[in-house]
Amino acid sequence: MRAFLNVHPRLQLLMIVGISAVSLAGAWLLFQGARDGGLWATTNHGRFVQPPVTVEELGIASATDEPLEAGKWWLWVVPQGPCDQTCRNALYQLRQLHVLLNRDAARVRRALLGAQPADAAELTETYPRLQMLSGNLSSLDRGIYIVDPLGNLVFYYTFDQGADDILDDLERLLKVSQIG
Predict the structure, then answer these.
(1) How large is the angle between the packed helices 163-176 and 85-100, nearest 10 degrees?
(2) Is pTM beyond 0.85 here?
């Protein structure tokens, strides 16, 4: 410490500014690395829905024009046309996933959006707790969505992604959520 005090005041100032500049540059580099998903990528498996979309914007309604059950998490399957085999596999996996949620299963609902009338009757018989929803689906891609209790679409998954990825993300959301 005495050696530092004996240094010329101008040199002391340069050392303080230099240390500050190095710290600031290091923080900026860490931020850029984290923002671009470099060293510290997110731990979720699904893709965030960008730009943010809400249930109200999509005009989602049930087949009987009843409002969606408020305060619940939703798993939506969006086939964009008839529910083909990949859509049916996704519905089956989501039913199994719903069972795996165990005590949190009551917090989550499942729905098929934009089902054709012929598909809806058959699928309602196969999956009694599956809700049929309709709305303006043109802005949604074909796949699976997680919707929060406030009506925000949170994550998107393709039909190719496994149910384990969805389960992992959904369990994490349910654990940290204070709503729904």
Answers:
(1) 40
(2) no
